[in-house]
Each structure stands twice: as structure tokens, then as C-alpha cells.
Amino acid sequence: MIAGISIYEILTVTSFLFFIGVYGFITRKNLISILMSVELILNASVINFVIINKYLYPDVLQGVFFSIFIIAVAAAETALAISIIINLYRQISSVEVKDTEIMKY
Amino acid sequence: MDISYTILIPLIPLAVFLLLGIFNQKIKPAVSGYIGVAGLSASAALSFYTAYQYFFVVGKESGIYKTIVQKVTWMNFTDTLHIDMGVLIDPISIMMLIVVSIVSLMVHIYSRGYMKGDDGYTRFFSFLSLFSFSMFGLVLATNLFQIYIFWELVGVSSFLLIGYYYTKPSAVSAAKKAFIVTRFADLGFLIGILIMGYYTGTFDFETLNNPEGPAILNWASTSFMGLSVITWALILMFIGGAGKSAMFPLHIWLPDAMEGPTPVSALIHAATMVVAGVYLVARLFPMFYFVEDGFALNIVAYVGGFSSLFAAIIAITQTDIKRVLAFSTMSQIGYMMMSLGVSGYEGHEGVGYMASMFHLFTHAMFKALLFLAAGSVIHAVHSNYLKDMGGLRKYMPITNITFLIAALAIAGVFPLSGFWSKDEILVAAFEHNTLLYVVGVFVAGLTAFYMFRLYFGIFWGKDTQYKHEPHESPLSMTFPLMVLAFITVVGGLIHFSEYVSADKAGFEAHLNIPLALVATAVGLTGIILAFVFYKKENELPSRFAHAFGVFYKWTFDKFYFDEIYLFVTKKIIFNLIAAPIAWFDKKFVDGTMEGIGNKTVVISKRIKGIQSGKVQDYAFSFIAGVVILALVFIYLWTN
């Protein structure tokens, strides 16, 4: 609970954060930037978990636990994504999305 | 009497067929001939054993020869309607077994000489075995469906053997013609079988043929267009029989079938397969006789009588010796049909039935003999045409004498077998139908005439100078001739009426002396006329031909029946029915299907850009979809 700030303000902020992530995911040309956008989406949802837990159900801690899980999974996922990107870079010397179209075939 | 061993009679030729057919290339021609002959000998021996057991060991029970059936159910439709497979033994099937096995064995032996050096020697024998298997199966069939199956099988083997010289276009088209014409007739047979099965609830010959059975007693229960449905079924079946037996107007395939090797003509198109129609009518004789007072049987009689006259007239003018024999076969089968048609049922009334079967037996022997002798002649002079023959008696004494015996037999000269059977037919016709009797006597005269025209034309007549001097055929070919000639001479002495009769009781047949004298006189007149015309080359035949003018021309061209059929099929059916249907098929049916295919290709080409392979595009579509759905739901909820 943060005094003077209601759940609506915080949810508005996380919504912005979420849609910034979505926008970045769709429009960025660089794989690393896309990965960062995905992180933004994840962070938005993590904040949502914590806030909803704190404001609506203050006597339980599931939301907080779950946010910890998401951070752990996100870390693993990022490591995996980075390794894929590095491998790709070794093959085609580029991290641009348009150069990865070759993988369609 | 346990008759399960009779199943071997058809199965042995089947085994030979498979053996020779599968190992076609591996078996040496000399061996395959012996295998074929050995298989058929075994079947023939079994046939004779069966006949001996049936007639002399078991004999009559309470005055009649029992019908013995052994079968297994093959397909079940309802409680009463099922298709069985099995063997049926009664006097006529025994008689047919004997006929088929003798002629087939003789033809096998003969073919070893006739086909020597031919490329497809083994193939030929395998087809002969296939035919023998099918014919034995047809004879032993226990029900309509079984007979239909084997009916088609003999049709197939006939097709294969007519088209044996498949490099010759005429043989190929003859085979096609035979198959199509008989197949067309078999459509009638099939419909007849189905009607019969539907209205009587059974396919079994035993049940159908029982004169006190429901199938015969209830014939009037349903009628269609003024006739009982059972009568219609019988007429349709007779159409099938008429197609196989080359009755008018379905006869056009038989003369062309002579394109096959001569032994095949002797076996299939003279002695066995072409009498299948007669056998079918005889097999269903109680039905034909009792249903609607023999309406269908009258049709059989008149079709038979007309065919025999029609064919005999054409036979006079033909110059291809095998075609003369083909038309003669058609004429004699017409005789048998006519005889069945005028037959009664009980005791001496059934003389027509007996005479028909008797004539079937004797005719099979002497007509097979005539064909084999003709084959021997063709083998010697390498031509089918009378103009290339003449004076052959000096070169081929055995062929000459056996041919003469067969010709005398078919002309009805005492005491050869043909005399006895023909006399019985004429007796039956005389007692029941004067018109058919007159036709019968006239045909007897014509038969004697054209047969001796053939005989004198081949063996006497002009002294042709041959490039290669013709010589007598080898023993493998003359031996069957002698055997068949022997049977032709003594065959008439069998007391046929005691074994084969419509009611299976047998009766004492007597020679009707006045009728016999009339028939013999007519036959001798025919022979004498032929003697005057053709013994020595002279001007008489051509002068008579001129005297008859246009009628001679018509006869020579077989009354233009081939042309009529061609006109009907090519001009009318092909142009007016088949062509529009083909157009519809191409434009609409095919068009619809192709249109669907083409449109799918066009559409997919247009929309394949969507599948870009970029995750971002997919994500965009996904999120756009989510946003649209969210807006829709918000809109719905707020209202």
C-alpha cells in the first residue's frame, strides 16, 4: 500500500508499460530490442501481480510469490534468447529481423 | 451317394491353368502340352466315373433319377435367399460333363499338333484349361448365381482365346465383338436372376424347379405388362442364353469368333460354350414349362426355329469353311432350342427335351469333329477359303473319311448318331407344332446341302495345283478325329431317353418310321443336289447364284446384320446419345471439378503473401485481433 496512490493510477502505468512493450515488439527491427520489449511486457505483468495482491488481497502472498517465479523464468528465457541470437549472429553476422526471414524455408 | 469328389473335375483344370499361367515362360512347350492333356484326362476319368456311379451304381430311386446336391453357403442375404457354392449332379449335368470332358480332351490332344511351333503354346494351353474349368463349373452349378459366375468366366476365356492371335487386328476386334455382344445379353440374364431372386426368394435350381414348389405354383402372384414377372425373368434369362448360344438376333459374334485358332472354335464355338444357352433353358425347364403355360418356352421355340432357318440359309453362300461351320452350329443350336421349346414334361411328352439333349450330345461330337477336320485341312493348305481347296482326298485320306462321317451324321443319314437325334427332334416338333416341323425338315435339307457343298468343295471339286503339296496331319491331330468319328458312328445307339428326360423318369423312345423316312429323303435330296452342283467344277452354282440375284447377294452378306448393328451403334447411339453425354461430362462434370481446383490455386496465390514468416507480422495480427475482440466485447457489455 502506498499512501495517496490508488490502484487505478498504478494499473494505468502498467498498461502503458505493457503497450509500450507490445509496440516495441511489433515495430523494432533489431532482435535485441525485441527481447527488451518482451521484458517490458513481462515486467508490466509482474507489477500487476504484486499490485493486485497488495491492494485487493493484502492478507495473502500468492501474487508476490508468483512474481518471483516470473522473474526467474524471465531470466532463464532471456539467457536462452540471447544464446539463440548469438548463434544466429555467428551464422549470418546480423541481428536484424529482416535477415532472419531465411529461416522460413 | 457322396459326390464331393466331383468338385475335383473343375478344380484340376484350374490347377493346371494356374500352373501353366504362372510359370508361363519357365515351362517348355513340349511339357506344357502334356500337363494340359494329363489334367484334362484326370477330369475326364472322374467325369466318366461319376456318370457310371450315378447311372449304374446308384440308379433310379422310386422310378426317377434323383438330383444330388452338395453345397456350402457362400453369401447370406436373408433366411431363404442365399448364394451357395457347390455341385449339382443330375442326368443333364452328367451328360454335359461327359460332352465337355471328351471334346476338351480331344481338343487338348489335337492342339499339341495344331499349335506346334506357336509362340504362345503354353499360354494357349493355360487358356484352354481356364475354359475347361469354367465350363465344368457352369455345368455343375447349383444355383442361378453360381451359373452366372461361371457363365462370365467362360465368356472371358472365350474372349481370351478368340483374341489369341492378338497381333492380328481382325482377331482383336472379333474378341471384343464376342465379349460385348454376349456381355450385353448377359445384362438380361443378370436382371432375370435378380427378378427371380426377388420374387421367388431363392436362387436354388432344386427349389425353383420343383413342379409342386412355391416358385412354380405362385407364378401368377405378380404381373407386369400383362405377363407374370416370373415369365419376364425367364425371358430375360433366355436373352442371356440366346446371346451365349448365338441365337438370332444376337448371333453376329459367332462367325467373327472364327478368328480364333481352330481347336478353340471346335471346343468353345461348336461343342461346349455355345450350348450353354440350351443348357440353361434345360436346367430351368420345369419353370419354362409350367410358368404361364409355357409362354417363355414358346418364345424359345420360335427364336430357335427362326435362327436355325436363318443360319442355314446364310451357310449356303459362305466361302470361308470355318464360317460355314459357324453358321451350321448356330443352325443346329437353333434346332436344340426349338426342340426344347416344343417339349412337354411327362413321359413321352418330354421327347423334345430328351431330343434336345441328345442332339446336344451328338452335335457336340460331330461338330467338334468337323471343326477339327477343317483345322486339319487349314493346317495343310494354309487358307480358310474354299477357292484355295479342292481334290484334297488324295492327300489327306483320314481327314477325308472322318469329315465325310461327320457330314453324313449332321445330314441325318442312317445309322449315324445325327440321324437318331434329329429324328427325335422332328418327332417332337411334329407332335406339337406343325409350322416348326416344316421349318425343321426344310433346315434338315439345307443342312445336308451346305455340308456336302463344303465336303465336295474341299475334298473333290477342282484339282487345285498346290505350291506346297499338302500332306496328312500328324497322329496327334488325326487321333482325335478318329475317336470323335467313332463316337459319331456309335453315339446314336445309346438309349438316351432312358437316362435323360424332362421328368427324370426316363421313357422308351421309338423310331417314328414315316417321319424318319421323310427326314432321310430330304437329307438325301440335299446331298444329291450338292453332288450335282459341286462334285465336279461346273457352271451350275454360279448360274443359280445369278438366278437368285439380289437374294444371293443379301445372303452372302449375311442379310447385312453387321451393318445394321454398326449403323445403330455408331450412327444412332454414339452420335445421338453418347456424344451429348460425353459433352455434358466434359463441360459440366469435369468443368466443375477443374474449376474448383483452378480457383483454389488462384486464391492461394493471392493470399500466400500473408504467410510472411516474420514473427512480428503474426504478432501484429494477433494483437489487432485481440484489440478488435476486446472492443466488441466492451461494446456488447456496455449495452
Question: Which features does this protein show?
Answer:
heterodimer, A: 105 residues, mainly alpha, Helix Hairpins, 0% strand, elongated, B: 639 residues, two-stranded antiparallel ribbon, 3% strand
Give a description of the structure.
- The complex is a heterodimer of chains A (105) and B (639).
- Chain A contains 3 helices and no strands.
- Chain A has 105 residues and is mainly α.
- Chain A has a single domain (7-100), classed as Helix Hairpins.
- The termini of chain A are far apart.
- In chain A, 7% of the residues are buried.
- Chain B is mainly α and 639 residues long.
- Chain B is built from 26 helices and 4 strands.
- In chain B, helix 3 runs antiparallel to helix 11, helix 11 (262-271) runs parallel beside helix 15 and helix 15 (321-341) runs antiparallel to helix 19.
- Chain A binds chain B through residues 22, 25-27, 34, 97-98, 101, 103-104, and chain B through 612-616, 619-620, 623.
Class derived from helix and strand content of chain A: mainly alpha
Low-confidence stretches of chain A: none
Annotation, overall tally of beta strands of chain A: 0
Instruction: Evaluate the radius of gyration of chain B.
Output: 30 Å
Estimate the strand proportion of chain B.
under 5%
Task: Give the spatial strand order of the biggest sheet of chain B.
Answer: 1-2
Helix content, binned percent of chain B: over 70%
Tell me the helix content of chain A: over 70%
What is the count of distinct domains of chain A? Answer: 1
The radius of gyration over CA of chain A amounts to 17 Å
Mean pLDDT of chain B: 85
Specify which chain pair forms the largest interface.
A-B, 10 and 8 residues
